Amino acid sequence: MKAIEVKGLKKKYRKTEAIKGVSFEVDKGELFGIIGPDGAGKTTLFRILTTLIYPDEGEARVEGLDTIKDYKEIRHIVGYMPGRFSLYQDLSVEENLTFFATVFNTTIEENYHLIEDIYKQIEPFKRRKAGKLSGGMKQKLALSCALIHKPKVLFLDEPTTGVDPVSRKEFWGMLKKLKKEGITIVVSTPYMDEAMLCDRIALISEGEIMKINSPEGIIDEYDSRLWKIRGEDMHRLLKDVREYEGTESCYAFGDSLHITLKGGEESIGGLEKFAEEKGHGKIRGEEIRANIEDCFMKLMKK
Ligand code: ADP
Predict the structure, then answer these.
(1) Residues near 223 by Cβ (< 8 Å), separated by ≥ 6?
(2) Distance from the CA of 92 to the center of ligand 1, in angstroms?
(3) How far apart are CA 174 and CA 170, in angstroms?
(4) Mean pLDDT of 224-235
(5) Whose CA is nearest to atom 16 of ligand 1?
(6) Most buried residue, 9, 53, 87, 166, by CB count within 10 Å?
C-alpha cells in the first residue's frame, strides 16, 4: 500500500479550476515535494488530502483511507502545517502545543522525542504568546504542533516561506530526521534549492502536474542546450536577446540570463555577435547544466 494515492482529482471554485485532473502516488516514508508557483493549486491539494475540502471528481487515499468516507480516521493519522500561520496567536507557545496534544488525546511528554530538536529551541519562550514570535520561531512551533500526535503522514504547505536562510536549513535537517522515524512527508515549496532535497518532486502549474520524478531525474530529462550570459545592462540585454531571431527562450535568473536557441543550435556565437552589435560589448556565453527552475520553465512552454 502507498502512503498516498490520488487519481483524477478535480476541484473548482466558482469559475476557477484549481485542480484539473491530478494523479500521483507517494511511497511510505518518502519525502515528496510539490513544486509550483502561487496559484498552482498546492494548497487546494493539501486541503483535499487533509480532508478539509471535498474534491469535485476523482479519488484521494491517505494510508489506504478515503478522504471523504474515512475522513475521521485520516484526521488522526495526519499532521498538517498550513501555509498561513495556523496557531492561536493569543495562546502561549506551551498552551498551543498542549492544545494540539489534547485534541489528539495525547500529551506533550508522550511524543516529546519527535519534536525535541525543534521544540527545545523555542522552549525558553514557552510563556510567550504565539503572536509575538519571530517567523522562524512560529514555524518551529507550528511544526511541533503538527507532529505532537506522531502522524504517519505530515503535510507541510510552504513551511519555509518567509523564514530566514539559517532556519530554513535547520528545518530541512529536521525533515531528514523525521523521515528516519518513518514519517511520510509531503511538502510544498517555491524554493528550487529545497526541491533538490526531496526524494521525488511533482512540478505543478495551473492545476496540472507537468512532471514527477527525482530532482536529478527531472534535470537529466532536460534535453536542450542551455547557456548563461551576463552583461552590464541586464535589463536591456534581456530585451535585445529576446529580439534576436535565433532565441527560443530567455529569462533572467539571479544575476544572469538563461538562454536556449532555436533548432538546438550548437554555438552561441551568433548571439554573442548580435549582442556586441547592439552595444553590449564582448559577451561570453557559457553552457550550463539545467536546474529545476529551467526544467520548470521549459515544461511550462510546452
Ligand atoms: P497555491 O497554494 O499553489 O498558491 P491554491 O490552491 O491556493 O494554489 O489556489 C489555486 C487557484 O484557486 C488560484 O487561482 C486561487 O486563486 C483559487 N482559489 C483558491 N482558494 C479559493 C477559494 N476559496 N475561492 C475561490 N478561488 C480560490
Answers:
(1) none
(2) 31
(3) 6
(4) 94
(5) 39
(6) 9
Q: Give all strands of the β-sheet with 4-13 in edge-to-edge order.
A: 16-26, 4-13, 57-62, 65-66
d(CA 209, CA 186) in angstroms, rounded, equals: 15
Domain ranges of the chain: 4-220, 223-301
CATH code for 223-301? 3.30.70.100
DSSP category for residue 175: H
CA of 39 from ligand 1 middle (Å) equals 6
Q: Which atom of ligand 1 is nearest to the CA of 36?
A: 3
The confidence score (pLDDT) of residue 218 equals 97
Nearest Cα to Cα of residue 210 among 222, 196, 199, 193: 222
| Cβ count near 15 (within 10 Å) | 5
- Residues contacting 232, CB < 8 A, separation 6+: 280, 281
Q: Where are the alpha helices (DSSP H) in the chain?
A: 42-49, 71-77, 93-103, 112-122, 135-147, 165-180, 192-195, 215-221, 234-243, 269-275, 292-301
Does residue 264 surpass a pLDDT of 90? no
The domain defined by 4-220 folds into Rossmann fold (3.40.50)
Distance 37 CA to ligand 1 centre (A): 11
Residue with cell 484549481: 18
Rounded to 5°, angle at Cα 290 from 288 and 295: 155
pLDDT of the residue at 142 = 92
One-letter amino acid at 255 equals D
Residues with a CB atom less than 6 Å from ligand 1: 13, 16, 18, 36, 38-44
- Counting from 1 in the atom list of ligand 1, the atom nearest the Cα of 37 is 3
User: Mean pLDDT over all residues of the chain?
Assistant: 93
Closest atom of ligand 1 relative to the 204 alpha carbon: 3
Q: What's the full length of the chain, in residues? A: 302
